[in-house]
Structure formats: C-alpha cells, structure tokens
Amino acid sequence: MSNKPLTLAEKLWRDHLVVKGENGAPDLLYIDLHLIHEVTSPQAFDGLRLAGRGIRRKDLTIATEDHNTPTADIHLPIADATSRAQVQALRDNTAEYGVRIHSLGDKNQGIVHVVGPQLGLTMPGLTVVCGDSHTSTHGAFGALAMGIGTSEVEHVLATQTLPLQPFKTMAINVEGTLRPGVSAKDIILAVIAKISTGGGQGYVLEYRGSAIRALSMEGRMTICNMSIEAGARAGLIAPDQTTFDYLKGRPHAPEGADWDQALADWSDLVTDDGAVFDKEVFIDADTLDPFVTWGTNPGQGVSLMDSVPDPESFSDPSQRAAAQKALDYMDLKAGTKMKDIQVDTVFLGSCTNARIEDLRAAAEIIEGKTKAPNIRMMVVPGSARVRLQAEAEGLDKIFKDFGADWRFAGCSMCLGMNPDQLAPGERAASTSNRNFEGRQGKGARTHLVSPMVAAATAIRGTLSAPADLEQ
Amino acid sequence: MEKISNFTGIAAPLKLSNVDTDQIIPAVFLKRITKTGFEDGLFANWRQKEDFVLNQEPYQNASVLITGSDFGTGSSREHAVWALKDYGFKAVFSSKFADIFLGNSGKQGLIAGVISEADTEKLWKLIDENPGVEVEVDLPSQEIRLGAEVVSFDIDEYTKWRLTEGLDDIGITLQNEAAIAAYEAKRESWKPKTLPAKGV
Ligand code: SF4
C-alpha cells in the first residue's frame, strides 16, 4: 500500500474497490448496505424479473415504507390508489425475494434515513446506497453514502456492486462555537448559501472543524443530509467517540471481538495529515445566526436577522432572474424583514430534522407557551421508534397541549406525495430540506428552517428565532 | 438497450436554467410501478400553461432538447429520464447537468451532451429564427448539425461507448463475478447484516 496521505473519502473508496476501471470505465465498488423504499424500487424489481435475475445479497438489503404513507389513521388502507399500489408492490417484491421489510405499523418503520442509523446498520467504513438523494445522511457516520437511481437500485440488487466514477473532494471547515439558538441546520443552510446549489457538484464534501466535532450524531446527520442540496454526491464526517457511543448497543452494532476489531478499523477513518482536498471552504461558527430561506432553492437563504434580498443586488444575470422568479412565486417583496414574514403552517419533520433530538429541541422551546392563532403545526417523527421514544419522554403531550398535530412517522409534508400537503399559496416554515416550487404541494411556499426556529415561529406566527421569545 | 449512433429530429429550446427534477416530473407522477408511460408527467406543471414551449405546435414532436445550465438538479428520481424518453426525447443538451441526472441518462439510453453556454445561446437563436427546424445529432462524432452550423458536445467516453453499443450495465458488471466473489470472501466480519433481523 502506498504512503500517500489520503482524505477520508479516498480511503473509503480504496477499501471498497472491486475492479479498477480502465480507459475511462468507472471503478466497480462493493456496496455494504442497500436501503430500499417504495418509490424507487418497483421498476428495479421489475427489471430483475424481466431479466430472470435474483438478489445477490438480501442479507445486506432492508426495506421500509415512507414516502407514500399517511401519518394519520395508519390502520386504514392507504386511500390514494397509486400510493397503495406502490406500497403493495414493495410488500410483494420483498416477500417474493426474501428481503427484510418494516411496514407501516411496525415499530421499525420510518423514513429510510432514520431507520438505518437507529437500527445500528449504518456505521463507519461502509458504503451505503439507497434510491433516494438524501442517502448522504449516512455519511455522518464516516460511511460513503450515496443516492442512486432506480436502474442502479436494480444493479445493486443483482450484483451488490456499483460502477462509479471517482469524485473530487472538498473540505468544509467549520470552526468555533455555535451560539445558543443556532444549530446544525443553520450551518448547512449557510454552507449552501455560500457555495450555491451547484457548488458541490462532482465533490464528496467532508465536514471538519471544532464546530462539527461538537455536534451530536443527530446534528451531523442533519448536515450530511443536505449535502445533496449543495449539489454534492455525498457528505462525510470522520467517526469519533461521539459516533462510537451512538452505535454501541444498537441492535445491529458489532459485539464482542467484532466490536474491538471494528474500533481498530474505524480509527483509520480520518483524513491523513498532509492529504490534499481539491477545494476548501471555511465557515465561522461563532458569528453564525439562525438561517432561513427566502427563495425556491436551498441556496437562496439569509440570516434570519436580514431582509429579503433585492434581485438587483445579484450581479450574475441568471441569479438575478432566478431571484426575481423566486420572489414572485413566494409572494415576497425585496427589503421585507425575514422576521416580518407571516407563515400559515409549521412543519417539524423529514429525514433532515425529525430525530429525537430535533423533537426535544422544539419541545423545550414551546413547553408552556401558546401557539400563534394563525399557525397550524404538524409534528411528524422520523420513525415509529422516534415517536415511541418521544411519547416515553412526554414530548407528545407538550406538542398536543401546544395545539400541534402529533402524527405517525413518514416523509409527510416534506414532499407532495402523500396526504400531508400544503394548499396552493400556503406558506410554511419547514424543517425539511427542499423549498422547490410545488415541493410541499402545488403552489405551496416553503421557508426552510431549523427545529428551534420552527418552534419559535409557531409561537410568534412570523419567522422567529428562539431569542425573540425573551423580548 | 437500443444502439444509438446518429439521428435527426426537431429541436426544442427550453430557455431556463436550474430546471430541477421536480419540474421535469412532479412528485405526484412518481407513484406508478411500471417502467413506461411517464410522458404525461413531463414538465406537467409548465405544460398547463399555453405558452410553454412544448405546447407550441412545432415542438410537440421534438426529440432534442436544448436547455439552460444546471439541468436535472434536485432529487435522484430516474423518472425524470424516463419522462423525457417516453415523451420522445432522444437527446438533451445543456452547459451543465446535475451528476445524478447525467448518470441516469447514460444508463437509460438518453444522450445528455454538454455544450458551451455560447453554443446554447447560438442554437436557441437559430431555432427561434426557424421554429421547428430539424437538427442532426451525431453521437460518434459528438456533433449537433443545424444546416451549416456545427456544434460539438461533450460526453464521457465510457457513456458514449455504452450508448453506441447499447450495453446493459448489469451484464457488464457480471463479467467480474470472480472479482466480486473474491472481495466478498475477505469482507470484515464486523460489517452489518440485515438478516437475521435484530431489534424487532
Ligand atoms: S423525508 Fe423528504 S427528503 Fe427525506 S427521504 Fe422523505 S421525502 Fe426524501
């Protein structure tokens, strides 16, 4: 083995190389964990059947239902016929091929990116894929985790490998200490605003620095989750004691001698001193404010203390046009203070921010407070287990007393695919990851926010920081 | 997969940048479980507007799309490529594509060629001057020909080879069966298995 210093991403790549591609052909990489859900898998199973192929490693494959599933009355048949058909197809396909599935009503059901980590299946040193772009979430453990398309899902099912072109590497250095009321979500929104939604294209991002080290696994997952919003193929954080503590004792975490061996192997999962990134970005955590979006892509964000920008302030003509189009869609005027924007709905949910810590952070802020009368609030745990845990801690009661709607687990309002949708023109403060036109329902307007900002907004009725509540 | 070399078709100008996959095919169309029939989902929200380019008569039968930069950003949904193909598009040209979209296109037999921004503008102008004009897309020589104008496009060598040979991904990989088995034989024992299920 050569002694050239390597970045973490390069080590993960090296460790999974099955065949080195020649003459421009991609490298063939082994896939350690394949997560499946109902939207991107039916055609993959169809393809297998048509070609008469089987699944190579069903013991490295797991399925859950999330995108289409309702978050209320889950005992009833799914009302929408096509949603029902997709979920049924997943159940039929997994039964036919012997793949483990956690269906609606099962205590391990939930958003695929919440389920993998909580079962202890996501761990350092793996390659993880799923037919969903937010697979980047799992990079928080020091795993190379990538979203793939349906034909790649079929490829992994059939071969447990994936042909991939090497990526470039980018270091995102976040140094300093976050102020109270500022969280991981604000870091990643600020990163995307800084490098733009195309800035990460072709790169694997490695988040580094003291502010990242200080984050819990939940916070790290929030950051890696939205790497894809910066256009990156994956996001990574080197594993450390926080990672190991999170994993230990989880159902599928290694035990005994395997645990010791794993710890030894994982200790190498850091970027070597002297390794060179293709690009480096620096973010100062000390001065970071809560961050919110004003436009229709996740890069169109500002500090919550700022105002809606003037399209004329963008020197790049296509950005200027995009800003104007976004303001029209969002029905916002340049110069309006972000904190004066009144919202209709607060959505606390999605694979970005619906883990237990996110619910705790929001509950702590709203406990004993009164909801603004103009607000409807929906709280959707990321998984059935998160829901159970929250109920054990009494968080559900805090949300319900506040007047929020306490739901069952799923993707919910993160995308307009299940019954939880915004009405045309409705404005939401949402802890999810995408504010595209129509993402949360046709004509819906989305402001991406952190769980703490979501909670403060539900109390005040306008976009707000927790600090605003004390005044 | 069908082999592609060169073809002639109507080119439609989509003068927008940052066309994300939610615009190419809104989420509501993703629910089907078949691999075909997604043509009605293509740009579904925009197609409700009469003045949208694909609603203009010469472009209803377009098979080549010339679009602005950052095409196919957002979600990884392969349905975006299926919808374009089912509608009848054989090639899309832009100065910049999202990585996942680019990968999905190669696998599904859709040419996603990169042209310069200047060439994008030039093609838009030529099409505007002559709506419904046919272009010749020549994959082996990586050229788009419109009358006397020739614009060259980039496509990586490997994808080009696959498209021209009409090769299926899985078949290519399975030629490496011995290497895959050898890799599996030395995988670490601490790596997780989903079966037998724990924590249920
Ligand atoms: S919560 Fe949203 S982003 Fe996450 S997997 Fe579901 S739909 Fe995708």
Keywords:
heterodimer, A: 471 residues, alpha/beta, five-stranded parallel beta sheet, 19 strands, 31% helix, 16% strand, B: 200 residues, seven-stranded mixed beta sheet, 8 helices, 32% helix, globular, binds iron/sulfur cluster
Short description:
The complex is a heterodimer of chains A (471) and B (200). With 471 residues, chain A is an alpha/beta fold.
3D architecture notes:
- The complex is a heterodimer of chains A (471) and B (200).
- With 471 residues, chain A is of the alpha/beta class.
- Chain A has 15 helices and 19 strands.
- In chain A, the strands form five sheets. A five-stranded parallel sheet of chain A has the order 5-4-3-6-7, with helices on both faces.
- In chain A, strand 1 and strand 2 form a beta hairpin.
- Chain B is an alpha/beta fold.
- Helix content of chain B is 32%, strand content 17%.
- Chain B has a seven-stranded mixed sheet with strand order 4-3-2-1-5-6-7.
- In chain B, strand 3, helix 4 and strand 4 form a beta-alpha-beta unit.
- The longest helix of chain B is centred in the middle third of the chain and has 13 residues.
- In chain B, 44% of the residues are buried.
- The model of chain B has no long low-confidence stretch (mean pLDDT 93).
- The structure holds iron/sulfur cluster.
- The site of iron/sulfur cluster has 13 residues of chain A, from loops.
Reading side by side through the largest sheet of chain A, how are the strands ordered?
Answer: 5-4-3-6-7
Instruction: Specify the helix fraction band of chain B.
Output: 25-40%
What is the helix/strand order of chain B?
EHHEHEHEHEEEHHH
Number of helices of chain B: 8
